C-alpha cells in the first residue's frame, strides 16, 4: 500500500505577499525610534538652521529658504532612501535576517517591494513635515496647479532611483557595524555636489559633471522647478529645468538600479 505524498500549500499571489512584506517593513521602521527621529527630524533641523543663517543673493525676489526648500526635500528623500536603506540592509545582512528570509518561500522581489513601499511612506511623511515647517516658519510659496503633478512624479521617481542605489551601496559595507561610516559620507558627498546645500551654479563645473551621473542631482533640479520661478532656470547648466531629461535619467537609474541590485546584492555579509 502506497502513501500519497503530502500536498504542498500554495503560496498567496505575489501582490499579496508584497503588501504583507511592506506592512512588516513599515512596522519595523516605526518601532526604531532613533531611526524615525533622525530620518524625519534631521531635514527639519537643516531647514531651520541653514535657512536662518544663510542668505545668498539669488535675485528675482527669491530668498534662500524658498530656494533651499527643493534642496532640503531632496536631502529628506535621500536620507529616507539611499542612506537609511543602505544602512538598514547592511544591518539585516550582518545579523542574519537576510539569510533567514532567503530560506523562506517568500520571493526576493517581495522583500525589495516592501523596502520601496517603506521608503515612499517615510518620504511622504518627511515631505509633509518639511512643507508644514517651511510655510509656518518661512512663508514658503507652495507649488500650484500642474506643478503639484511635477512635484509628485519627480519625488516618486527620485525616491525609487535612490532606493535602488541605496540597496547597491549597502553591499559596500563589510558588516552592519561599518555601514553608517561607509554610507553616510557617500550620501553627503552626493548631496553637496548636487547643489542640495548651496546653489548648483556655485558648484565647480567638473563636480557638476560628476553629479550629473547620479540621480540626486536630477531629483534636486526637478524639485527646484516647482519651487522657483522660471527666471531662475537660466542658472541651471542647460539654461532650463530640463524636465524631460530629469524623467529620462531618473527612469534609467531605476532600470540600472534593478540590474545592479540583481548583480551585486548579497544575502550574507563578507565576513560570513
TrEMBL record:
The alphabetized list of GO BP terms reads: response to antibiotic
Q: Which organism is it from?
A: Geodermatophilus obscurus (strain ATCC 25078 / DSM 43160 / JCM 3152 / CCUG 61914 / KCC A-0152 / KCTC 9177 / NBRC 13315 / NRRL B-3577 / G-20)
Mind telling me which InterPro entries this protein's record contains? ABC2_TM, ABC2_TM_bact-type, ABC_2_transport, Nod_factor_ABC_transporter
Chief site of localization? membrane
What keywords tag this UniProt record? Antibiotic resistance, Cell membrane, Membrane, Transmembrane, Transmembrane helix, Transport
The record's Gene Ontology cellular component field reads: ATP-binding cassette (ABC) transporter complex
Q: How does it sit in the membrane?
A: Multi-pass membrane protein
Q: Where in the cell is it found?
A: Cell membrane; Membrane
Question: In terms of domain of life, where is this protein from?
Answer: Bacteria
* Sequence ranges assigned to domain ABC transmembrane type-2 in this UniProt record: 34-268
What name has this protein been given in UniProt?
Transport permease protein
Carries keyword Cell membrane?
yes
Give the molecular function GO annotations.
ABC-type transporter activity
* Family statement drawn from the similarity comment of this UniProt entry: Belongs to the ABC-2 integral membrane protein family.
Membrane-spanning intervals of the chain: 36-54, 66-91, 112-138, 150-169, 181-200, 243-265
